[in-house]
Amino acid sequence: MEGHEIIGFVAGFGTTFAAAPDLYAMLKRKSAQGMNPTMAGIMGVFQIAWLYYGVLIDSMPIIIWNIIAIAINSLTVGAFFHFARAENNG
């Protein structure tokens, strides 16, 4: 693995899992309080664009990292709406 590939791997890992702490905190406290789903939604849209770009240039690291990131952001938005609905009904 060359130097630029290592940098790409580390950068991909960091940006992919940047939203994971928010998801973890929300699941742990079982509350949507303090969470803004707009940020996760915007990130998800651009991660879909990155995924498409990865397919166009046939870059497996870009494809894989962005599939994982889209999944994390989807779970974050889904958890937000689940907990927000429960808080409004409860």
Automatic annotation (TrEMBL):
The chain crosses the membrane at residues 6-27, 39-56, 62-84. This is MtN3 and saliva related transmembrane protein. Keywords: Membrane, Transmembrane, Transmembrane helix. GO terms for cellular component: membrane. Pfam families: MtN3_slv. It comes from Nitrosomonas oligotropha. InterPro entries: SWEET_rpt.
